[in-house]
Amino acid sequence: MTYCCAIKVNDGLIFAGDTRTSAGVDDVRTYNKVHVFEFPGDRVFVLLSAGNLATTQAVIAQIRRDLDEPIVPMSLRLARYMYDAAEYVGMLSVNAQKTVSSQTQYSSVDLRTTFILGGQIQGEEPSIYMIYPEGNCIASSPETPFLQIGEHKYGKPILDRVIKPEVSLEDAARCALVSIDSTMRSNISVGPPIDLAVVPKDALQVTHKLRLDIDTPLFARIRDAWGRQLAASFRNLPKFDWEAPPVQGNLLDDEAPAA
Amino acid sequence: MTYCCAIKVNDGLIFAGDTRTSAGVDDVRTYNKVHVFEFPGDRVFVLLSAGNLATTQAVIAQIRRDLDEPIVPMSLRLARYMYDAAEYVGMLSVNAQKTVSSQTQYSSVDLRTTFILGGQIQGEEPSIYMIYPEGNCIASSPETPFLQIGEHKYGKPILDRVIKPEVSLEDAARCALVSIDSTMRSNISVGPPIDLAVVPKDALQVTHKLRLDIDTPLFARIRDAWGRQLAASFRNLPKFDWEAPPVQGNLLDDEAPAA
Question: Could you tell me the pLDDT band of residue A104, with boundaries at 50, 70 and 90?
């Protein structure tokens, strides 16, 4: 399994993903799922993947091949709009699945991979797209400015509650880390280290790319601080009417007693 | 869909469930999924259900029938241990499914229901059991002192982070409400109002049973306070090393700067 998310806020884009790949619990490996394609000053793309690892690698390899060829009909360098780039990745994904399934028509292996492609092309707005295994794609919306692939349910509530377009890029990054941390606690097929990429608006490059393990000081401190603050938040929630009155210093002292 | 959870802390038991039942998005109804069976001073049971509504109602009806009969081999009143009561409910569930499926062997309707049965029998510890559609059951554990049925993933991270045996009964109740609220925000097939039942240890009765709608003042205030405190918690998380130093008043001022 996998969990990756991409967030679009006014200040730019955040990409995060775990690194655990498993073909069953007895075949667990670590793979990068956050792939960066940078053309500094002109365009930047980050590709996240969840699904069949061979399909993913076939797509990545073809993207690189197309970038090296002097004459190709389409590549990440040639795409005029982000949507074109997303459609291009979708086409590569469908082709990769077709090639393998035509060779192994009696196999029941699931060849599907879902991608998130995000980034910015000079003169365009930053954007993020989810690319389905069928090759079609959708963008994020202002109301739900994030996309998730893989084991997405455990980590969605915190994104739902926190992520709005006006949230700072760094708060969005911390929210992505908390979202992945929540998922790792609930599903062991999502595992550390976590990769994080930061693409500020109009930077046209990845300004920060971090790999955070459980014991990386920053990540350990975020996990610890988040746990403590959640617990403190619970102590400050409104009381039931049968409870003793809130203790002194309660953040909600100024509110009316629970009805 | 449905989402129900039961929590066991040192001070007692909490039960909570949504009330939305749907046979497709065009057939949505409200049903109580938190069923109380009280024998004050002797024993108390709360039964939560997720799955086929007809199976659920067949089981509830049989439980009541067995309580009204003067001579029966087993009933909630006769169970010696909580485990016996859970096995009894499992048997009723299997029987209810068998009866219907023998009448409709060509139907593809899913007759399965999963239950959580919790409560306390005088002289025994309070406990909670998950009863599978197959009739077998498991108890909660000290390490994971809660059980969930239905759409459980969205609401699990907050339970994972907050619920420990030493948490107060009321904090556990607030956590259950937040867990259901998170689930309702992500899955419209889980919907209000929410039912909440509180069973303190050795009370041998449900001391509080609340039905909370979105606009019930207490629930509205918990939702609002939780949202604000989560946002505040994010502002107080450790900073990345490229960020400006924390502003004055930061709760984590006493920590070393982010490494």
Answer: confident
Q: Is residue A225 part of a domain?
A: no
Report CB contact under 8 Å: B258, A218.
Answer: yes
Q: List Cβ<8 Å contacts ≥24 apart for A20-25.
A: A20/A189, A20/A190, A20/A191, A20/A192, A21/A53, A22/A189, A25/A189
User: Does some domain include residue B78?
Assistant: yes
From chain B, the residues in CB contact with A190 under 8 A are none
Interface check for B258 against chain A (CB to CB < 8 A): the answer is: yes
A34 domain-assigned: yes
Of B185, B236, B239, which is closest to A229 when you measure between CB atoms?
Answer: B236
Instruction: Assess if residue A164 is contained within a domain.
Output: yes
pLDDT-based confidence at residue B38 (cuts at 50, 70, 90): very high
As for how many domains chain A has, the answer is 1
Please give the distance of CA A153 from its chain centroid, rounded to a whole number. 13
Q: Which domain covers residue B100, as residue numbers?
A: 3-221
CB A242 within 8 A of CB B238: no
CB contact under 8 A, A160 and B186: yes
Distance from the A210 Cα atom to the nearest Cα atom in chain B, whole angstroms: 10
The mean pLDDT of chain A is 91
Q: How many beta-carbon pairs below 8 A join chains A and B?
A: 123
The CATH number covering residue A41 comes to 3.60.20.10
Q: Mean pLDDT over residues B146-171, rounded? A: 94
Half-sphere exposure of A126 (CA within 13 A, CB side): 29
Considering only CA atoms, which of A195, A202, A205 is closest in space to residue A45?
A: A205
SS3 A201: coil
